[in-house]
Amino acid sequence: MKPRRGATVPLPLLTPALLGLAFLLLPLLALLVRTPWRSLPALLTTPEVWDALRLSLLCATAATAVSLLLGVPLAWLLARVDFPGRALLRALVTLPLVLPPVVGGVALLMALGRNGIVGKWLDQWFGLTLPFTTTGVILAESFVAMPFLIISVEGTLRAADPRYEEAAATLGATRFTAFRRITLPLIAPGIAAGAVLAWARALGEFGATITFAGNFPGKTQTMPLAVYLALQNNPESAMALSLVLLAVSIAVLAALRENWLTATN
């Protein structure tokens, strides 16, 4: 139901609503007010900033690619296949959404670290070490970002009419062919929205990254980690970097606005 224009708002609701609005907007406004706009170009063109920005964009894009490669089939499995324990599997898949990122980083170390249950075999058999590397950044970002993609794609799959796939099956198409030729085009908007969300989440990841990959400039230091380090030594640089991440967040909201409007109408 759409809100009525000109409807009066009870004071007991209006007051906390305005306080909540102020609480959410005041920090953002403070960042904009305190940002050193005159020195912003110089702050954003330092080699350290460019290294962090380049690494952040590279790792976030790679993490999104990993999420697409693994998350879309997993979302299809959860939406289209009925099997025992599906509800439990869905809960485990979405657990990183509510899991503290630092805990996620510790879990990755226990699994993929040099002494982890899988990482020790990767090290012994292939000489492959994942923690404290750029690959480790990508894995940490994928771990926290993939659930956003899965939720978006699964919701789109549930809304899509399965009769198109059933009709393709009656015409002799295999299930994979029906998925590739019919399902994927139908759910493309949901995949795009999920990919944007996953990319933005990966770009802003901090806790799992610093725990699993460390904070090495040019190697694992992404933008959020650079903000954390700059805040201790150069607050103006921290504000400039924060402004970049804020601009990216606003761009993501603008990109997803059409999907949200479609979903709510």
Automatic annotation (TrEMBL):
What does this chain do?
Part of the binding-protein-dependent transport system for molybdenum; probably responsible for the translocation of the substrate across the membrane.
Q: Where are the transmembrane segments?
A: 12-33, 53-79, 91-112, 132-153, 182-200, 238-256
* Annotated InterPro entries: MetI-like (IPR000515), MetI-like_sf (IPR035906), ModB_ABC (IPR011867), NifC_ABC_porter (IPR006469)
Q: Where located?
A: Cell membrane
Q: What is this protein called?
A: Molybdenum transport system permease
UniProt GO cellular component terms: plasma membrane
Pfam families (alphabetical): BPD_transp_1 (PF00528)
Occurrences of domain ABC transmembrane type-1 (ranges): 53-256
Task: State the annotated membrane topology for this chain.
Answer: Multi-pass membrane protein
Its principal location?
membrane
Similarity comment: Belongs to the binding-protein-dependent transport system permease family. CysTW subfamily.
Which terms does the record give in the GO molecular function aspect?
molybdate ion transmembrane transporter activity
Q: Which UniProt keywords apply?
A: Cell membrane, Membrane, Molybdenum, Transmembrane, Transmembrane helix, Transport
Question: What is the species listed in this Swiss-Prot or TrEMBL entry?
Answer: Streptomyces roseirectus
